[in-house]
């Protein structure tokens, strides 16, 4: 009996290690020059409303066939902005994750929808390719159309301002390399709470760490995944500089002339609640 107990004492830790065996990875979902969830003092000229852009990945029998494991937020926004050649930012932006399951094909997309604006003069940039994709993507879609499908859409963030371009506006950082994250937890692959992490919550948590901050610049968006046999965790994590868009002395470009942040200028009609997409124009 004593020998049996001793064997069990040795086997118990091994059993727990087996159950809790872990794997993890981190993916970069894009780099943005600016990101905010609150009203910010960024003069903007509206160009187009309700513009969409998206970036998708495809799996065939669970094997990625689009060259990436996760969709790219930066590509999705670039494709939306490219629909207005003079645009370099978006306001009132909503971020969605669209997932579609076919018999043998899975499609996951990041989709952004918002208003394209112009912040400052800059050289015209090349128009990004549309979401039609490569011949491989088209072949996969052709096969998928003929198969039974199901899908869902999840909203994973809402932002008052976002850009992947050089804005021509300089903000002194209140603090650099600030991180924020939002996570979802699963036990035996059953989600506890929401299905996906919320990117806007991650940005809020980063900005809240810095007094008087209201926006992030030079933002890197990451997705961190922890996988065990029992417990799984997926996080949206942002890292960047927190700034105050209303800070005195900030140099901004208004029209074609540079205006110091502490100068007296007429109120910008493109800022504030009247520019919210949900309000009348």
What ranges have pLDDT less than 50 throughout 5 or more consecutive residues? 1-8, 14-20, 121-148, 252-281
Largest sheet: 10 strands, antiparallel
Order of helices and strands: HEEEHEEHEEEHEEEE
| Structural class designation | alpha+beta
Overall mean pLDDT score? 76
| Count of helix runs | 4
Cα radius of gyration in angstroms: 23 Å
Q: Order of strands in the sheet with the most strands?
A: 3-2-5-4-6-1-9-10-7-8
Number of domains: 1
What's the overall geometry?
A: globular
Helix content: 10-25%
Strand content: 35-45%
Number of E-state strands: 12
Task: Give the termini distance in whole angstroms.
Answer: 82 Å
Question: Would you kindly provide a written description of the structure presented here, covering whatever features stand out?
Answer:
Helix content is 17%, strand content 44%. The chain has 281 residues and is of the alpha+beta class. The strands form two sheets. It has a ten-stranded antiparallel β-sheet. The model is unreliable at 1-8, 14-20, 121-148 and 252-281 (pLDDT under 50). The protein has four helices and twelve strands. The longest helix has 18 residues, at 2-19. The chain has one domain (20-275).
Topology:
Elements (H helix, E strand, L loop, with lengths): L1 H18 L2 E15 L8 E16 L2 E2 L8 H9 L7 E13 L3 E14 L16 H11 L4 E14 L11 E13 L2 E3 L6 H9 L7 E14 L2 E13 L7 E4 L2 E4 L21
Antiparallel strand pairs: 1-6, 1-9, 2-3, 2-5, 4-5, 4-6, 7-8, 7-10, 9-10, 11-12
